[in-house]
Amino acid sequence: MLHFAPFSALSILALVICFLLVCVFEFVNGFHDTANAVATVIYTNSLKPRTAVIWSGLMNFVGVILGGISVAYGLVELLPADVLSPPNGDPAVPMLMALFGTALAWNLFTWWFGIPNSSSHCVIGALIGVAIGDALLHTRDLGNSVDWSQIWKVLRALAISPILGLVGAGGLYFILKHLVKDPDLYSPPKGEKPPHGWVRGLLILTCTGVSFSHGSNDGQKSIGLIMLTIIGILPATFALNPGAAPDVSHVAERAAIVAPLLDTYDHDGLRGEALAAAGRLQQTKPDAVVPSQLRADIYEVVAGLKAVAANPAASAEDRKTAKAIGNQFRPTVEYAPWWVRLLSALCLGIGTMVGYKRIVHTLGEKIGNTHLTPAQGASAELVGAGLIATAGYTGLPVSTTHIITAGIAGTMLGSGSGINRGMLAKIALAWIFTLPVTIAIAAGLFYVMNMG
């Protein structure tokens, strides 16, 4: 129905629009998700709203700059190799449009109704939808064309982290209540009076921790999306890491080592594509590289090596070799220029400074049957900051929204005040429906835009 010829005016225009969309998405992510970080300090009057969001925005910025890129490419690799880096240099406009359009629309929809929803879920659902749409487009078996092992790994992190937040924050609140007897910790805010001394400092500290860890995790997601977009716009410039020239010189010899592994293990029918890519890589000459083709071949081989490493029929030595050489290939195609990090940090930081009121009100007054107290807010955010930061540096995307929301619910249970079942039901429904809705919309958009 819609046809985007490589490097046509229509493709370039669409890619520019995609570049703007990813910036808007990260901006929306800032005012949607980061409200979780400022909710406690604003609600308890520890900081004025303007001061809180500026400080949180700054900490988000620092988190993005200092964070790695493992989460960024952990998400990107949810896409099949042929979509992730089309071998003919096609900018893959349908993939980007389906991805950004779906994630942004659902994010805004839930924000409008004040429902704490996960931007991570939006992106992951859209990525899975594109992968499924690609399989349907090429009439391939879903079991073989979608990297379900990577998807389950990501989904497990998203599912387990809120449970850890619930139990951890509830347990910390219980301990705090029995060890610290300061009544100010357990009293809801009164008027505009801030908590005294160390209580206020504790809340500001936990706000800082959540903001920084949110930047280090969620900021990486937009880094991966920005990289997909600029590689589509200028594949000759950005398809390969400019600092990876030494790695390119070793591509041929590494491909020669892995070709027998790919030939030995069928790994779910992917052998043909990976083997063909390994054959092309063995002919690579560093002075005559076509960046888009080399990138596509590397990702095909990496996908094959991941399957070998997970194949129980492979020997321990072969699985170890497959994993090691896959990791050696990655730096050639997985990187992020400093300005991409800076752009992601700016969009997330600026977004934090607006649109926070709806979510703050929900977290402060609608999660439990009583209003949020400083001890509850600090417990939820302290545990949340630890979980999010740990995930960010281990390459697992998690949801700031769901961890903090679950943490607050845990402290409400720990205090014996109970939880607002109606609001939690809305949050749970958003959690349940986000993935199927975004998967279906993205798959449909990708399929339709590739027809013709």
Word description of this protein:
It is a single chain. This protein is an all-alpha fold and 452 residues long. It folds into two domains: 9-236 and 336-450, no CATH class; 240-332. It has helices spanning 9-33, 35-43, 49-66, 70-76, 81-84, 93-112, 119-137, 142-145, 148-179, 197-233, 235-238, 245-249, 251-264, 271-282, 291-309, 316-329, 338-352, 357-365, 374-392, 400-415, 421-450. α1 (9-33) crosses α17, α4 (70-76) packs across α10 (197-233) and α10 (197-233) packs parallel to α19. It is elongated. Belongs to the inorganic phosphate transporter (PiT) (TC 2.A.20) family. Pit subfamily. It is found in: Cell membrane; Membrane. GO terms for molecular function: phosphate transmembrane transporter activity; symporter activity. The chain crosses the membrane at residues 54-79, 91-112, 118-137, 157-176, 196-215, 222-240, 338-356, 427-449. It catalyses: phosphate(in) + H(+)(in) = phosphate(out) + H(+)(out).
Itemize the secondary structure elements and their pairings.
Elements: H1 9-33, H2 35-43, H3 49-66, H4 70-76, H5 81-84, H6 93-112, H7 119-137, H8 142-145, H9 148-179, H10 197-233, H11 235-238, H12 245-249, H13 251-264, H14 271-282, H15 291-309, H16 316-329, H17 338-352, H18 357-365, H19 374-392, H20 400-415, H21 421-450
